[in-house]
Amino acid sequence: MTWMGYYFLPDALESLKNDEAESEKHRAENSARESEAQQDVGRGAALSGDLESILALSPTEFEYTVTAILRMLGMTGIQRVGGRGHLGVDIIARDVSGRTILVQCTKRAKTKKIGSPEIRKFIGTAHMHHQTDLKMFITTSEYTVHAQALADQHDIQLISDLT
């Protein structure tokens, strides 16, 4: 019995590795299809300029909408990095001068303003983890007076009301 197990163990391990590789391939293909669909939705919302359409998007679709807007503004090297473990940055891009820009996207109802705690968090992660000076915070809402003052002190470009 031991010998049989010994001889077949490598085959069983190889079979498990192949199954895992196949599953990972299917997950990657599904993720790519989902990502492409979300990008299409984002482009459509960006082109429409309709705030109600944008507010109806998922957070990921909103990030893709912002990437489409940044592309329209002439930015290049745009990467959506949002999601789990994104360290407070949803998009990394390059402006027309080639400088790296960090973008935080927050989709909220008009009545829920962005406060200074969100700006403080963005400042910290931008300096500690990404070490770049160009920062942009984009929302469908508005900013409190304190958030605006803090952003001004740290050279964060605030963008609101995407319509």
How much helical structure, as a percent, in the residues? 55-70%
Number of strands: 5
User: On the 0-100 scale, what is the average pLDDT?
Assistant: 79
Described by strand count, sense and barrel closure, the largest sheet is: 5 strands, mixed
Strands ordered across the widest β-sheet: 1-2-3-4-5
**Poorly predicted regions:** none
- What's the shape? globular
Span from first to last CA? 72 Å
Helical stretch tally: 5
C-alpha Rg (nearest Å): 21 Å
Helices and strands: which structural class?
alpha/beta
Bin the strand percentage.
15-25%
- Helix-strand topology string: HHHEEEHEHE
Notes on the structure:
The chain has helices at residues 2-48, 51-55, 59-72, 116-130, 145-153, and strands at 76-80, 91-94, 100-106, 134-139, 156-159. With 163 residues, it is an alpha/beta fold. The protein has a 5-stranded mixed sheet, with helices on both faces. β2 and β3 (100-106) form a beta hairpin. α1 (2-48) crosses α3. The chain starts with a helix and ends with a strand.
